[in-house]
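Collaboration report, partner site 2.

Our partner group contributed sequences for two proteins of shared interest, and the home lab folded both. The records are reproduced in the order in which they were received, starting with the first partner submission.
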Amino acid sequence: MFQWFLGGDEKVPGMARMLAGFGQMLDEGRHVFVTAANAYLGHTDIDVIRQDLFDTDKRINHAEQQIRREIVVHTTTHGVNSVPQCLMLMSIVKDAERVGDYAKNIFDLAELTPKPPSGNFRDDLVALKDRISALMVSSRVAFDQQDEEQANDLISEAEAIEDHCDSKISQLVSEIENRELGVSYALAYRYFKRVTSHSLNVLTSIVRPLDKLDFSEHRPESEN
């Protein structure tokens, strides 16, 4: 979808600038997710990272607003030919912004939970955090290069992560006896899944037309 704009055409410097800003949003989003997740898992002191997390989220929000303004200018200048790309960029910019929101949710959970996760669930959440972080790094590379083959592989990985989170939530609902811990863990899996889902939406922009954005070809319509 963005190949024409990434080709270095001097006629579209505004789009190149917007895509650079979007890439920065992806990097900042991974940073706040990992920071918040580490706080929840007990790897980082909450008070130490609080200001950095909220400052980074503000930068993400500011970048989204800046890109929106530039989209308006760009479509006015370049006309209807750029509308599909601009609409898609508008959509995935919102996905990048939502990652920051879910990172704040994870941080809130860290503040509300009396003690960090423990046992098998903690081990699984640690591994899942690292898996999602790696996905986000690779997604940035795939987007920058508009690499469809890599994007399809990453889409499959993202969907596997989503399924894993759903499975753990179902397990928590049916098995765990400590209600307080069960709610905390289930919310953590839910927020981890949502971060993954927004990364997945970005990946679909590489391989899907605008009308299929955010929809998986591998899942039934009811699961999209």
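Second partner submission, folded after the first:
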Amino acid sequence: MRTEQELQGVTLLGNQHVQYSDQYNPAVLETFENKHPENEYLVTFNCPEFTTLCPKTGQPDFGHVYISYIPRERMVESKSLKLYLFSFRNHGDFHEDCVNIILNDLVRLMDPKYIEVTGYFMPRGGISIYPFANWADEEHQELKAKRLFEQMTKCQNK
């Protein structure tokens, strides 16, 4: 069981008075200590109700976002991630921008060994957009290149 000291930075989980930000808000993200930094393991978040706004028309865009990472010392707390992703609801940006913003914010927050963010956005004007962005430390550059190639091949074969 985790100690109170280990949970010191986790303030949103269990808090019944959390406010949902309706504007992009990376400050809501929280982390906790990875108790197994010596292990190479994957953490995946499945966010099937991601919404944002078109920066030009203001119309809503709906997508399914997957976030997978190999943690180092810090891990993102899931309720804070939920609130962070919710903060995109009134944020006007293109799908590609949203995926890269999420990636960059999580890299800054956690300093993972490897991370990737994939968005599967609903069609707009008959076109679906599936942006993929990934980042890796020095030791995981081969994985980064392999995963990017796999995503390119996967999209071309659909």
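Feedback sent to the partner group on the second submission included the following. The chain has one domain: 28-156. The first strand starts at residue 31 and ends at 33.
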